[in-house]
């Protein structure tokens, strides 16, 4: 299986997982540690949210933003997000983030638990898309899993990209891309692509970052 096929399997997984997705937020107390961290991130103005999923962060973004454009590749997740974060400030759209290109610029680009799903070979291109979406003086801000999250995952060997195996309630088994970014390495990589970034560990399993260009 090549990286392209893995990405398509990942999209299929999140479409199927949409009804189960919120359970993790309900069952894992450590995710609550990210809420005060989120409040410290420089979010404001017109916000682009990438991979919004079921809208767990969309409403909080809208509370601090002039407008929010929220994208996700899974229409099933978007249906939940539209109900959770219904607001005249928020516009939702279905888009494959590896194919999507911005038609305008935003003051903030936000993504939670998405960067770890970008194959390493596509990482530079993804950050270029983020740069293309940012207005002058804007910032990219993100939350994600860090290396400590690996203990919760079934990490796979021998795949074309770093990946884990996950099983849904119906018993179906899926492979998804999962890169556990080390903060220092990520800062160096971003510097090589023209970004100035700050990335820190939160708790034992998460990272939070801000990048400007």
UniProtKB/TrEMBL annotation:
PANTHER family: TRANS-ACONITATE 2-METHYLTRANSFERASE-RELATED (PTHR43861). InterPro entries: Methyltransf_25, SAM-dependent_MTases_sf. It comes from Actinomadura syzygii. Residues 47-138 form the Methyltransferase domain. Coiled coil: none annotated. This is Methyltransferase domain-containing protein. One of its GO terms (biological process) is methylation. It comes from the Bacteria. The keyword Calcium does not apply. One of its GO terms (molecular function) is methyltransferase activity. Keywords: Methyltransferase, Transferase.
């Amino acid at each position: 299986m090549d990286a392209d096929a893995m990405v398509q399997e990942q999209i299929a997984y999140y479409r199927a997982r949409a009804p189960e997705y919120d359970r993790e937020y309900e069952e894992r107390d450590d995710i609550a540690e990210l809420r005060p961290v989120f409040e410290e991130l420089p979010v404001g103005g017109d916000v682009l949210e990438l991979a919004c999923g079921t809208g767990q962060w969309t409403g909080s973004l809208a509370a601090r933003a002039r407008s929010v454009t929220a994208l996700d590749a899974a229409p099933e997740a978007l249906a939940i997000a539209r109900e959770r974060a219904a607001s005249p400030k928020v516009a939702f759209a279905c888009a494959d983030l590896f194919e999507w290109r911005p038609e305008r610029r935003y003051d903030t680009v936000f993504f939670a638990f998405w960067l770890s799903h970008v194959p390493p070979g596509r990482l530079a291109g993804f950050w270029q898309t983020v740069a293309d979406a940012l207005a002058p003086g804007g910032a990219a801000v993100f939350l994600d899993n860090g290396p400590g999250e690996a203990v919760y995952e079934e990490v796979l060997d021998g795949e074309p990209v770093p990946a884990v195996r996950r099983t849904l309630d119906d018993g179906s088994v899926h492979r998804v891309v999962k890169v556990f970014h080390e903060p220092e390495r990520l800062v160096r990589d971003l510097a090589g692509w023209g970004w100035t970034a700050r990335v820190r560990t939160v708790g034992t399993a998460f990272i939070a970052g801000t990048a400007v260009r």
